[in-house]
Amino acid sequence: MERSKGQCAMQGSCGRKGWLGQSLPCPYNGPPTKPDTDELKQLLSSVCGPLFEDVPVCCTLEQVETLQASLIQAEGLISPCPACRNNFRSFYCQFTCSPDQGTFLNVSATQQTSEGLEAVKSVDFFVGGPFGNDFFDSCKNVKYGASNGFAMDLIGGGAKDYRSFLKFMGDEKPLGSPFQINYPESAPPEYTMFNPLARHCSDNDPSSHCSCTDCPTSCPALPHVPSPYSQPSCQVGSVTCLSFILLSTYILAIFVIIAGYFINIFVRRRREKTYERVALSGDPPPLSPSSIARGLVGASSLAQADGEDSSGGQSDLRLGRGASLLDPMESFQPRRYHLNIFLRRMFYRIGATCANYPWLTIAFSFIFVGLCNIGWKQFEVESDPVRLWVGPASESKLQKEYFDEHFGPFYRTEQIFVTPSDELFIESDGTDPALTWDRLKWWFDVEKDIRFLKSEPNGYTLEDICFKPAGPEGSCVVQSITGWFGNSLEKYNSTSWVQRVESCSSQPVNCLPDFQQPLMPAYILGSPLGDGPKNWLESRSLIITLVVMDSLENDFKEKAEEWERTLRAFLEQLSAVSVDEASSKVFFSTGVSLEEELNKSTNTDIRIVVLSYFVMFLYVALALGKGNAYRKSTGNGFKQCAVNLFRIFKRKPLDTSTVESHEDRSSPDSLLRRLFVESKFTLGIFGIFLVILSVSASVGLFSIIGVKVTLIIAEVIPFLVLAVGVDNVFILVHELDRQNLIHGPSASNNFSPAMFSPVSPIRHLSFESTHEDHVDTDSMPLHLSPEERVARTVAKMGPSILLSSLTETLAFALGALVPMPAVRNFALYAAGSVLINAVLQSTAFIGALTIDLRRTESYSLVHASTLRSLPDATGRKGSNFNIVCWDIHRVNHIHPTYSTWSRQVASLSEYAHSHSTLDQRLALPANSYLIPYFDALDMYFDVGPPVYFISQDVNVTSIPDQQHLCGRFTTCDEMSLVNILEVERNRPESSFISQPAASWIDDFLRWLDPSIDTCCRVRKRNSEQFCGPNDPSGLCKPCFQDRKPEWNITLFGMPEGDEFMKYLQQWLISPTNEDCPLGGRAAYGSALSLTADNKSVAASHFRTFHSPLKNQTDFINAFTAAHRIAEEISLATGTKVFPYSLFYVFFDQYAHIIAITQEILGLALGSVLLVTSFLLGSWRTGTIVTGVVALTVVSVMGVMGLWDISLNALSLVNLVISLGISVEFCAHIARAFMGAGVGYIGDNVITGQKERDERMWTALVDVGPSPLAILILSRMWFSLIISGALHGLVLLPVVLSLAGGPGYPLEDTDEEWMSNAIRRPDYEYTPFLTDDRSDDSDS
């Protein structure tokens, strides 16, 4: 039978369960009674509203007083949202006093109290689903700013639905309900479901409407911001617009090239038919000076003018008679570039001076280096990560300094991960979770040792340096699972601990640690595997975080660092034995770990640098020896030397004739001579020694001006300078070998014109030689002294070295524009090292080269008979590189150009998918204990870092400025700081904010609310004196109890000016506890920075948390999102707001890395263009060189995307290096191309093409082998070197041969001999070249 209305289920108080428990109601099945006293009426009206003032109720005065006390505890948490507050009050008022209580409440069990009375033990409260859902919805988003969490975490145990919410409130607990309240899903037939109309937070009624902070549906709409992980907005089908454009351009180019190929074939065939008709008719084609193909092909035509052409054939075509009457020297008027002449003369004088005074030159060079090395006295290594990667003018660095100055430095964290020994990096199925009874007992003992760990030598403990939110007498913040157990397992056993973990993980508020702040399971337990509800008993790791104070005072910082070093040593020992003791692995990081490990990286890499330099020395020494002018007679070179080495110990004594015989060059004596005379070991050592000296001098020079050394400088620059410097060494040595062949001791007896002038495989003489006699002695090269040969070598190669060194120096120096100290210092040191190395190579190395040449020839003169055979040592006719050069030009010119361009399209497309990140693991030694720690951090820790939004220069003592900041009062700006942060929290995919903001202004003003009479209190007798937390309530009253105007949610009449500051300072020292959860000391003690006179607030911060950030891309996106949000707040409120988080200072570079990269590479390429064009005297050649260098960099950037190499400060350094190395590949070849000789180029395009091919082939033979040395020296930059080699040795020659600028007068021949040979009356000079392949020379 249905129970009738007007009937109670319980009423009155029947005593307590124990001596300390709350009063228990009595079972009562009678009718309700009217309030019999005015006190009860007034109390009912104030607590439950006027509806209960004059109606019968099922409660007594004592029950209403208990109800009021309970509601006041919750009031501080839920009062900001009227809907939640009123629903909460209505729910418990109806439960306690409703006249129809018996229709929805059933006493299911009773118990005896200490007074011997029967009291309620449990009841069934039949709550309907509609009301339950609306009640829960009105409260689930109410924030508790002090913990950056929700009120639901405290009043509902973090419930996710209304049933969990009601269950948490109904469970019997010491600090909750004194008896069990159950909430069945359905009611028996005689009962009805409690289902009144609930209030909604978005109702327009002021008694229900909640602010945006506590009600998402009340929030304003912000412009849409897409997630950085969403698909690009510009797409064509499934590909991005950039990829589509590149692909379309690529396909179009293919059609253009194919069409051009067929058009070329068609034009060539028509031309061939025209020539055939002319030949058949017997009439010569009309000639004019402008239509005759007149390409001077350089020394090759001169060298072979007295013999047959290279093919052995004879041409049937001859020039017109008028051409043969021209005077060769008058018709040959090559372009003269005065700067080139000046540089050749200048370097000739430098070379002559250094060669004539080699020892003096070396001495002066060493004196210069010694003076620079004086700066080593001020040598410093920068290892501070902040000063290393953040520029002094960086916005994030300035903001960090502002934060540290006004709020104190961010806490130092010591974090430990404890996992099963086989867990890390294994997809565990939960069979071996981190939480076991044995592991738990082991860790309790370990943590106890840590808490009492004393540092050496001063004996500091954790208590001396830890963060204590409740003040100096409070407890340290140690976020660990031990906090759930009260730091002791004495009350638990091998089974009961499981129930404790389950209870605390679902309701952390019931398991407060000693520092009295809830420990959310994600803070102390590694995330379990799988989706859906998390079973924390299957967590994969224990997470322990010790929070240590930091300070700007060095004394306290040294104290903290001393204890941290002791902790680090303790944890290192623990990790070594943890597997045996507890089948666990320990991964950890302390406050000093990162800087210590970065410093350790330098020491571990020294061995690599030394070993690498030793290998480089061997290679250079052997390679220079193989480049000797006498290498032809060595048989198979060093391979043959190795085969014959054993003969040194087994041979019979050799006579003199054996030593002097050419046929015995491979004998042991000859082997020894090649090893100790021709191998140039000493010269190789000296060349590498100069590289070391240049780096040392650069370090000393920049140390004088205060530029600190970084790890990049120590690890990269020696290799970079070695690669660049050795290239110059090879070029000088190879050119000296060529000079020795032309003007050396044996040149007059073994000379032939072909030996000094490279003969192109594409050369065919266009006429029959009319002179078969050899050139007489007047046209032979003269024997020159070693000093003169060295001077000519420097004159020839000095401008080339100047071009490459100057271009690289400028390119590297422009890197100093990067604000990051690591990159800036690297750029300065690299530029200085390259420049000093170039100077030393042009002076000291020239002196050493002269000394080595004298030594070699002093031996060679004694054994002159061994030098009678003529070598082809200069890489000329018949050499392997000669054939390579021919192969490069024999293919169609369009093939390398097209394939290279194809690579650029692919590179751009790949680079579009690269990221701007810098994984901190890259900067650590490979065996660092921090690497597995960072891996564990990414895998297990699902809590994002805190982020602070700092408001500065705001007068918070005035109500208008308060309205710019607040969010829980009706007159707060719709787009206030707090409201915007709340809206952004609701879209974490783009804001990366996951938790509510801690709004000090809202909590402070609510602390003044007189309805929460346990918070702001003053003495009844003296309202100017505040009451302390321990003062009895009889002596105190709420601060605003009698104030006019009274406290209200409109901010009207709220304190301003001095009154505001008086209450604010008291709030900042008020404890945060159960009686007053709005106290400011624990939650906001460091959130405000007051002025020196305490009359205003200089700055304040609003704390929230990022969502979990798992990789470097997440950190960068979070950094970008926070700055975007701060800008929006500044624009909306008219106040200055900026974000700060501990990691921002390291990721500031990524806000500008793309712009910096564009700026640096653009300026560097511009400098390459200007320098190469100016020194080469050809804008066309300079543009080609710059374009090839740019394509090299683009290729490297493409490889970055392909290999998932991110764009960061380190990769930017490598891009600058790639530009410099590419210049090294291109500069020497371009300079040799311009100086390979030139003649008139007529209107015939074929002849112009042929002439450029000739010069390009000569340039490749002259300097092409030298840059290949870099391929061996620079294994660190594999893609960089491969790209540079392909572009510099393949693409550049092809493009220069197609469109290179006009060259200078012939530089690679002896001018006196050439002049004499040309002016001899019996020598036929043929400056006009035509051959049987001219027709298709451009094909």
TrEMBL record:
InterPro entries listed in its UniProt record: NPC1_MLD (IPR053956), NPC1_N (IPR032190), PTHD_SSD (IPR003392), SSD (IPR000731)
Compartments where located: Membrane
Keyword line: Disulfide bond, Lipid transport, Membrane, Signal, Transmembrane, Transmembrane helix, Transport
Coiled coil residues, start to end: none
Single GO cellular component term: membrane
Single GO BP term: sterol transport
Entry keyword annotation includes Hydrolase: no
Protein name, UniProt field: SSD domain-containing protein
Upper lineage: Eukaryota, Fungi, Dikarya, Basidiomycota, Agaricomycotina
